[in-house]
Design brief:
The termini are close together. The chain is globular. By secondary structure, it is α+β, with helices and mostly antiparallel strands. Strand 17 and strand 18 form a beta hairpin. The chain has twelve helices and 22 strands.
C-alpha cells in the first residue's frame, strides 16, 4: 500500500512596500500538512484509488474493502460518502448540497442533490437523498449506516482541517450561541479541540430514521449540461458569459466544499458536498451539525472525443466557473492524457472580479517577464498564492486517471 499526500502551498509572501502587487488572503484559508510526497495522481493501472481530505476516511474504507473484497462498487462509494459525515463534520452535513459523478466504461451519470429548485422544495436533507440513491433506498441506507457505525471508532481524532475550522469560527454567532451544546462535542473547558484530540463520534442512525424521505426520483437531480464553443465540451454553466468577458459575482467564496473520490473495479466515483457559510443548529450533543444548503453549485465540464472522455470539477471561489472557462480554453485539454491534464491543472491561474475591480493572479507561477507585463497594465493586479481547486478525470475503455489539484491539501491513497 502507498499513501500519498498532496502538498498544500503555504500562503505567505513577502511583498515590498513599493510593489503594486497587493497581498490578499486566499479564497480559502488552508491548513499546512507535511506530506510524505507530493504526487497528484496514482500510477497507471492502479486497481484502487481513494482521494479525500480525510486520511481517517481513506484508511477506514481501505481496511473495509480488504475485509469485504466482493462488495459492489456503488456500496463502496456510499461508504466513502457516508463516512464524510463522521470525519468531515465541518464540511459535510445532512443538509449539504451533494453532487456526484459515476463513470462506468464509456457512460457517466451525474446528479446534483439540492433543495433549491422549485420542484425540490420538499427536499430538506439533500445529502441524505443522495446517499439513499447510492445505497439503493431508505432501508439499504439504514442497514449500511447501522453496519458502518458498528465498525467505526467510538472517538474521532481531530485533524488539521477541523481544528482550523474550530479556531477560525469559535467566535461566530452559531458557536457562541451553541457553546453549551457543543461543549461535550468540539469544545473542552470552553476551548476548541486541537489536532490529535478526540471527540465522541456522531450517532447518525437515530437522525436518519426520523428524517429519510421516500418516493424521491433521481431524475429530478440530473443537472443539465450546456454546449460550449469548443467541440464536444459541455458544462453545467453558461460559458457564453465568459466568452464575452462577463464577470460573475458569486457567493461561493463563502461556501464550504468537500471533495472525495474512488476508483474501484474499473469504475469511478467523485462526490462533492457544499454548505452555506452558516450552521443553523446542532441536532444534539451526539450530533450531527446542521448547515444551510450551498447556494452555488459545483462548476463541472465534460468533454468527449473519438477515443476518450474528460471531466473537470471546479470548486472554491470567488468564481469557480471562470477558472473552468480559463482551463478548458487551453488546447492541452484536447489531448485527454494524464500528462497534459497534470500540466493543465498546474499552470498559473487568474480571475477578474468586480466590486471591487481586481485582476487576481498567481504571480509566483509566472515568468518574471509576464509578471512585469501584468504590473505595467491598469488591471489593478492582486496577488494570490493559489486560486481555486480543480480535479480532473480522463477515461477510455478500462483505463482511467484521476488528477488532484496540488493547491489544496488532499490525501491520495493508491493500492
Amino acid at each position: 500500500m502507498k499513501v500519498q499526500f498532496v502538498l498544500p502551498f503555504i500562503f505567505a509572501l513577502s511583498v515590498s512596500c513599493s510593489s503594486i502587487v497587493h497581498l490578499i488572503n486566499s479564497e480559502q484559508k488552508s491548513v499546512e500538512i507535511v506530506p510524505a510526497n507530493a504526487k497528484v495522481s496514482c500510477e497507471a493501472n492502479t486497481a484502487l484509488s481513494i482521494g479525500s481530505k480525510s486520511l481517517q476516511a481513506n484508511t477506514f474504507l481501505l481496511d473495509y474493502l480488504k475485509r469485504h473484497p466482493n462488495i459492489s462498487f456503488k456500496k463502496a462509494a456510499a461508504i466513502l460518502a457516508l463516512t464524510q459525515l463522521y470525519f468531515r463534520p465541518e464540511t459535510t452535513t445532512p443538509g449539504s448540497r451533494f453532487y456526484y459523478l459515476i463513470v462506468d466504461k464509456d457512460k457517466f451519470q451525474a446528479n446534483d442533490f439540492n433543495n433549491l429548485m422549485e420542484k425540490n422544495q420538499s427536499i430538506k436533507w439533500p445529502f441524505l437523498i443522495g446517499l439513499q440513491h447510492l445505497a439503493g433506498g431508505v432501508n439499504p441506507l439504514l442497514s449500511l449506516t447501522r453496519h458502518i457505525e458498528g465498525r467505526l471508532p467510538d472517538r474521532i481524532k481531530v485533524d488539521q482541517y477541523l481544528s482550523h475550522f474550530l479556531q477560525e469560527n469559535q467566535s461566530s454567532p452559531f458557536f457562541t450561541q451553541k457553546k453549551k451544546a457543543l461543549e461535550g462535542l468540539f469544545f473542552r473547558a470552553g476551548q476548541p479541540l486541537n489536532v490529535g484530540e478526540t471527540f465522541k463520534r456522531f450517532q447518525l442512525l437515530p437522525f436518519m430514521k426520523n428524517n429519510l424521505q421516500t418516493g424521491v426520483s433521481t431524475k429530478q437531480f440530473a443537472p443539465p449540461l450546456f454546449p460550449t464553443s469548443k467541440k464536444g465540451l459541455k458544462c453545467n454553466l453558461d460559458f457564453g458569459l465568459y466568452d464575452h468577458q462577463v464577470v460573475v459575482n458569486s457567493k461561493e467564496w463563502d461556501s464550504n466544499f468537500n471533495i472525495f473520490s474512488l476508483i474501484f473495479k474499473n469504475k469511478i466515483f467523485v462526490g462533492v458536498t457544499s454548505n452555506g457559510p452558516d450552521f443553523i443548529k446542532v441536532n444534539s450533543p451526539k450530533g450531527p451539525l446542521i448547515s444551510k444548503n450551498a447556494l452555488t453549485p459545483l462548476s463541472f465540464c465534460h468533454q468527449k472525443n473519438e477515443t476518450s472522455q474528460m471531466a473537470l470539477f471546479s470548486l472554491r471561489g470567488p468564481d469557480s466557473g471562470q477558472i473552468l472557462h480559463q482551463l478548458t480554453m487551453d488546447e492541452a485539454v484536447i489531448g485527454h492524457d494524464k500528462v497534459s491534464l497534470i500540466k493543465l491543472l498546474k499552470q498559473a491561474r487568474h480571475i477578474k472580479t468586480t466590486n471591487p475591480s481586481r485582476y487576481i493572479f498567481e504571480s509566483q507561477s509566472l515568468p518574471s517577464q509576464e509578471v512585469d507585463r501584468i504590473l505595467s497594465t491598469k488591471l489593478n493586479p492582486y496577488h494570490s498564492r493559489k486560486i481555486g481547486e480543480v480535479w480532473g478525470l480522463i477515461w477510455k475503455n478500462k483505463e482511467s486517471s484521476l488528477v488532484i489539484d496540488e493547491r489544496q491539501p488532499t490525501h491520495l491513497l493508491c493500492d
